[in-house]
Write a structure and sequence with these properties.
By secondary structure, this protein is an alpha/beta fold. The protein has two domains: about 160 residues, Isopropylmalate Dehydrogenase (3-Layer(aba) Sandwich), CATH 3.40.718.10; about 130 residues, Isopropylmalate Dehydrogenase, CATH 3.40.718.10. It contains eleven helices and twelve strands. Helix 9 runs antiparallel to helix 10.
Length: about 350
C-alpha cells in the first residue's frame, strides 16, 4: 500500500507556501498521497470559537490514519482561554519529542558565514507543557516539567543523529547554575548517553553565553548537534535562523518513535497573506524531508539540490534573500531544476 500524509494548510501565508510544497512534490512525481485537512485559528474563528482545540475531530482522525503529516504555519491567539498551538498539541498527542532544525548557510545569502549544524529541541516537556497557576490577581507561576525518561529518549535521538551524520560534537545548552534540579536531570542524561558514543566531544554551555557565542562566533558550532530543553532551543534556533539570512530558509521536522510532523520553522505572517511574495523554501524543503521519511530519498535529494542552486544563482528568489521574485516564480524555478536533476 502507498504511503499517505495529512497536509494542513494553516493560517496566514500557510496556504500559499503549502501550495508551493505540494506543487514541487507533484512535479517531481512523488507517489505519497497527500490528504488535505483543516486546522488552525482561522477555521476555529470561522466556526464560532466553540472548539476547545484548533484541530477539528475529523482532522485528528485523519492524522491518526496517515503515516506522517505536514503542518502549514498556524496562528496561535495569545490570550488566556484560547486553545494551545496546533504544533504543541500534535507534538504531545503523537509524542513527537524531537524537534529538529538543520541550520545551513547559502553562499550568496550569507557570504561572511559558512555554517552547518543542527538544533535539537525537546518538544513535549519544559515550559511548553502549559501548566500555569494564577496565585492571586497579581501573581502567576509557570511550571517547567523535566523528566528523566523524557530527557533520555530525546537525548538518545539527538546522539543517534550525531552518529548517523558523522557529527563529532554535541553541545548541551542549559542554565544549570540556576535551574539545578531540572537542568541537572537533563545534563545527567547527556553525560550518560555521551559516554556510550566513542569519539563524541560532549560539552555544556549556559543559555545566556550561548546566545552571545552564536552572534560573535557561530562557526565554532559547525559539525555539532546542539541540544536543549523546549524553550531554550526554541530561542536558540530562532537566532540561528537569523544568522543564516532568513527564517524563510529554515525547514524542520518533529520526530517520535512512530510518527513525524514536518513544518517550516517560520510562523503564519498574516500581514503577508495573499501577497505572493514570501519565501517558499522552508515549506518546500520540509515537504522534501517528509517524502524522504516516507521512502522517496531521490526526490528529497533533487529538491534540496535544486533549491540550493536557485538560491545561490539569485535570479528567481524572494525579497527576504535579496530578490524580487514572487512565491510562485521561485517555486516554478525550483520545480524546473529539480525535474532535470531527477532525469539524470
Amino acid at each position: 500500500m502507498g504511503k499517505k500524509a495529512t497536509v494542513i494548510k494553516g493560517d496566514g501565508i500557510g496556504p500559499e507556501v503549502v501550495d508551493s510544497m505540494i506543487k514541487v512534490l507533484k512535479e517531481c512525481n512523488s507517489q505519497v498521497e497527500l490528504v488535505l485537512a483543516d486546522a488552525g485559528s482561522e477555521q476555529w474563528q470561522k466556526n464560532g470559537e466553540k472548539d476547545p482545540t484548533y484541530i477539528p475531530e475529523s482532522t485528528m482522525k485523519l492524522l491518526e490514519s496517515t503515516n506522517a503529516c505536514f503542518k502549514g504555519p498556524t496562528t496561535t491567539i495569545p490570550k488566556p482561554g484560547a486553545p494551545r498551538s496546533v504544533a504543541v498539541t500534535l507534538r504531545q498527542k503523537f509524542e513527537l519529542y524531537s524537534n529538529i532544525r538543520p541550520i545551513k548557510t547559502y553562499k550568496r545569502v550569507t557570504p561572511n558565514h559558512d555554517l552547518d549544524f543542527v538544533c535539537f529541541r525537546e518538544a513535549t516537556e519544559g515550559l511548553y507543557t502549559g501548566i500555569e497557576v494564577q496565585l492571586t490577581e497579581d501573581a502567576a507561576i509557570a511550571i517547567r516539567k523535566i523528566t528523566r525518561p523524557g530527557c533520555r529518549r530525546f537525548i538518545g535521538s539527538a546522539m543517534n543523529w550525531a552518529k548517523n551524520y558523522n557529527m563529532n560534537k554535541f553541545v548541551a545548552i542549559t542554565k544549570r547554575n540556576i535551574l539545578k534540579m531540572t537542568d541537572g536531570i537533563f545534563w545527567d542524561e547527556v553525560c550518560k548517553a555521551g559516554a556510550q558514543v566513542p569519539g563524541l566531544e560532549v560539552s555544556e554551555i549556559y543559555i545566556d553565553n550561548m546566545m552571545q557565542q552564536l552572534v560573535v562566533n557561530p562557526s565554532q558550532f559547525n559539525g555539532a548537534v546542539l541540544a536543549s530543553t523546549n524553550l531554550f532551543m526554541d530561542i536558540v534556533s530562532e537566532l540561528a535562523s537569523g544568522i543564516i539570512g532568513s527564517i524563510g530558509l529554515v525547514y524542520s521536522s518533529n520526530m517520535g518513535d512512530n510518527y513525524a510532523m514536518f513544518e517550516a520553522a517560520h510562523g503564519s505572517a498574516p500581514s503577508f497573506k495573499g501577497l505572493n511574495k514570501v519565501n517558499p523554501t522552508a515549506a518546500v524543503l520540509s515537504g522534501a524531508w517528509m517524502v524522504e521519511y516516507l521512502g522517496e530519498r531521490d526526490i528529497r535529494n533533487a529538491i534540496f539540490a535544486a533549491t540550493e542552486q536557485v538560491i545561490n544563482e539569485g535570479k528567481a528568489v524572494t525579497f527576504d534573500i535579496g530578490g524580487t521574485a514572487t512565491t510562485q516564480q521561485m517555486t516554478d524555478e525550483i520545480c524546473k531544476i529539480a525535474k532535470t536533476k531527477l532525469r539524470r
